Amino acid sequence: MTHVLETAAHPRALRRVAIEPLTRVEGHGKVTILLDEQHRVHQARLHIVEFRGFEKFIQGRPYWEVPVLVQRLCGICPVSHHLAAGKAVDMLVGARQLTPSAEKLRRLLHKGQLLQSHALHFFHLASPDLLFGFEAEPERRNIIGVIGEHPELAVRGVKLRKFGQEVIRAVAGKRIHGTACVPGGMNKPLAAADRDALRGEVAQIVRWSQEAVRTCRDLLDASPHAPIFGVFPSNFLSLIRPDGALDFYDGGLRARSASGELIFDHVDYTHYNRFIHEEVKSWSYMKFPFIINLGDEDGWYRVGPLARLNNCDALDTVFAEHERQLFRQAANGGMQHATLAYHWARMIEMLHAAEGIERLLDDPEILGTDLVTRGERAFEGVGVIEAPRGTLFHHYRVDENDVVVRANLIVSTTNNNQAMNEAVRQVAASYLDGQQLTEGLLNHIEVAVRAFDPCLSCATHALGRMPLRVELVDADGVVVDRLVKGSDGRCTRDDAV
Amino acid sequence: MSPDPRKTFRLDGREIPFREGQSVFDAAMAAGVYIPHLCHNPDFEPHSSCRLCTVIVNGRPFASCTQPAVAGQDVKSDTPELNEMRRSLTEMLLVEGNHYCPACEKSGSCRLQATAYALGLQDTHFPQFFPHRDVDASHPDIILDRDRCILCGLCVRISRTVDRKNVFAMTGRGIATTIVVDSPSGLLADSRVSRDDESVKHCPVGALMMKGEAFKIPIGERPYDKALISEDSVAQFQAREAAAHG
User: Fold this and answer.
1) Do residue B116 and residue B218 come from a single domain?
2) Widest distance between CA atoms in chain A
3) Which of A340, A1, A381 is CA-nearest to residue A181?
4) Which of A264, A352, A490, B154 is the most exposed place for a label (fewest CB within 10 A)?
5) For residue A480, with 0-12 CB atoms within 10 Å meaning exposed, 13-18 middle and 19 or more buried, which class applies?
6) B132–A contact, CB cutoff 8 A
7) What residues in B contact A180, CB-CB < 8 Å?
């Protein structure tokens, strides 16, 4: 299933482009495209240099530090890492089942995170492409352009995100990098005043989320690209509830094939490494996970909103479930494979999160004060959640002194590594083949990557400012064209080429 | 015994009453004047090692925690020069160890962190040393994280004079100085320390912590979330004075 453009048949005839390792926080990405004499695409690769070292430097630290330490991986979705690590640490203290109030607080925290992250991505980052077109002038195709021409939409995006951030603050003490999870539970109950304040706003948030789904759907319907842009078959992976409904916080692992057949279902996620392995490729610092049974060629998969809505049988909130059914009907009940459908799925999930928040705020147990439980001590813990960008795995082993001796993290963006590469290849083959590079072309590639909302923090979370270099290299290894987008968002052609 | 109102010294232009035998530091704090400090805990004998509480007494520098108050002294503390020195000392402490505040369970309760904020530190200024220091997590109840140790010696003094166990000591010289544990293996698990010891309860920076307590105090309720260290230290000192002397 791997796209033929991953590796050219005779790459030695082509000059290999060297890149400097840059951290993911810096958000640097690079696309290389190898062409023959007729400027046909032979190879296209998205290089992401993801070298953070967390798995190494948490070794030697006590396990109770881990949920607070690893959330520093990210400033966009730290809650996801906090929760995944928190679940793993629960296992270490034998807390396989949290108290009802603790679990509901975690779910509330998680839904706040999903809501703010999805709102940030759609309104701030993705909407300019969809509102103005992929090839609109860059000066207009950004959040300032959205504020200028669609002020209501822009303000709504800000307010939706603000609400999600407020949910996080109420539960974790801070909007970013708070503390909430302690081994076996949570460190504080929700204050009644916070609950009441959030309740006063949540109905409006649900309404706005409904409208956001419609807005996204309308934009995709109106886009000439939507049906063909970055469409490719893949497997899908996500967590699933025992009854088949989507669950962001807990459940078993489900994988479906491109045609929708189950590959595995309701797998205990603590055994994830019996089903998923990671492949290393020489040209990327980011690993390539795959389903073991299918092998590395065919076993790669997509995660995140598109995968979750393709995988699940239902959403357990009314409005979001209605939208999910429309989503699936649009693919005639089959799998949605369009890259741009990620946006639609993301907005449905945002609505689902908003409705879920509303329901949790109405639950009396959300104010409960019995928040910590313990059980039999263990020395290995695995925590898996559905982060905004997809399935997130945290796995730790500790020694008898409570110190971490081994850690393995498979973050959402890593799960999507191969899929993002496939999207780049599809777009390169469809839009670039035989063409001279333009800024608009460069943005097509960026749009494809951006649809996944990859956690290259600064990169895709600073619209139009993702430092990116696209090179055309002919069959003799000569760079025939080069466009460079700097961190200031300006795109320049390298005239020396 | 209340301070003798006839006996005062001048601190930054203000007359400070004191009791016979009181230090400049204690008299100042009792009068509501904060002097930054790290190695000194008023519940225990002063040590004058961190030098953060240095003041100028009649033109000469002294550690205020061990300098006896004398009537008629002219003492300067809150001056740009002294505060700059305190900032530099604090910056050096921060780069000499491995102080990762964002993930530290002591954050919000840490005197080093709070003092740095009080002194207006914007960054650590000096290059980080990133030393390799061992974590001793061998004890079932107590963890010794040398990354955070600022060598204030409080645990050494308290273990010796209060617990009477001599569990902790300093070894090495200069920049290589480190805290060691008195046990055959050098590990806490094999020492006489116990969770009830005073020596493990007063570490200002979280080098000595009880296991199982991390992050239990939520953000917003930690000591230095609620008050500046200057206010908190003075309030605690005055409460202690009121309890002891009425």
Assistant:
1) yes
2) 70
3) A381
4) A490
5) middle
6) no
7) 218
Do both B219 and B237 map to the same domain? no
Note whether residue A131 is domain-resident: yes
**Which amino acid belongs to residue A256?**
R
Report the mean per-residue pLDDT for chain A.
87
Q: Is the CB of A188 less than 8 angstroms away from the CB of B218?
A: yes
Q: Å from B74 to nearest chain A CA?
A: 45
A107, A68: one domain: yes
A226 to each of A133, A150, A449, how far by Cα in Å?
11, 21, 15
| Closest CA relative to residue B91, chosen from B58, B56, B127 | B127
Amino acid at site B43: D
Q: How many CB atoms lie within 10 A of CB A196?
A: 10
Closest CB to B219: pick one of A61, A173, A402: A173
Q: Check if B212 contacts A (Cβ < 8 Å).
A: yes
Judgement on whether residues A48 and A137 belong to the same structural domain of the protein: no
- The reply to whether B41 falls in a domain is yes
For every residue of A181-210, which 3-state class applies, written as one string? EECCEECCCCCHHHHHHHHHHHHHHHHHHH
Is A179 within 8 Å of B218 when comparing Cβ atoms? yes
Within 8 A of B218 by CB-CB distance, chain A residues are 173, 179-180, 187-188
Beta strands in A313-387 (DSSP E): 380-387
Q: Cβ contacts of residue A286 below 8 Å, gap of 6+?
A: A48, A49, A50, A413, A414, A417
Read off the pLDDT of residues A72-114 as tens digits, 9 standing for 90 and up: 888 788 999 999 999 999 999 999 999 999 999 999 999 999 9
Query: The complex's ipTM?
Result: 0.91
Total domains, chain A: 2
The residue with tokens 């070794």 is: A59
B187 interface with A at CB cutoff 8 Å: no
Which residues of chain B fall below pLDDT 70?
1-5, 246
Q: What is the spatial distance between Cα A183 and Cα B213, in angstroms, rounded to a whole number?
A: 10
Instruction: Give residue A48's pLDDT.
Output: 66
Q: Are residues B121 and B189 in the same domain?
A: yes
Give the DSSP letter string of B117-179: HHTT--S--SPP------EE--SSSEEEEGGG-----HHHHHHHHTS----EEEES-GGG-EE
Give the number of beta-carbon pairs within 8 Å between A and B. Answer: 53
Chain A contact present for B105, CB below 8 A: yes
A chain contacts of residue B104, beta-carbon cutoff 8 Å: 65
If you search the block for the tokens 């333009």, which residue do you land on?
A: A438
> Which residue among A64, A72, A173 sits closest to B218, beta carbon to beta carbon?
A173
- Chain A residues at the B interface, defined by Cβ less than 8 Å, are 60-62, 64-65, 68-69, 72, 172-174, 177-180, 182-183, 187-188, 401-403
Find the domain containing A305 and state its range.
Answer: 56-372
Range of the domain at B199: 105-226
Q: Kindly tell me if the per-residue pLDDT of A30 is higher than 80.
A: no
Do A182 and A82 belong together in one domain? yes
- B93-146 per-position pLDDT tens digit: 999 999 999 999 999 999 999 999 999 998 888 999 999 999 999 999 999 999
Helix or strand or coil: residue A29?
A: strand
Looking at the fold, whether A228 and A248 belong to one and the same domain comes out as yes
**With an 8 Å Cβ cutoff, is B92 touching chain A?**
no
Q: Which of residues 12-71 of B touch A (CB under 8 A)?
A: none
Prediction pTM value: 0.90
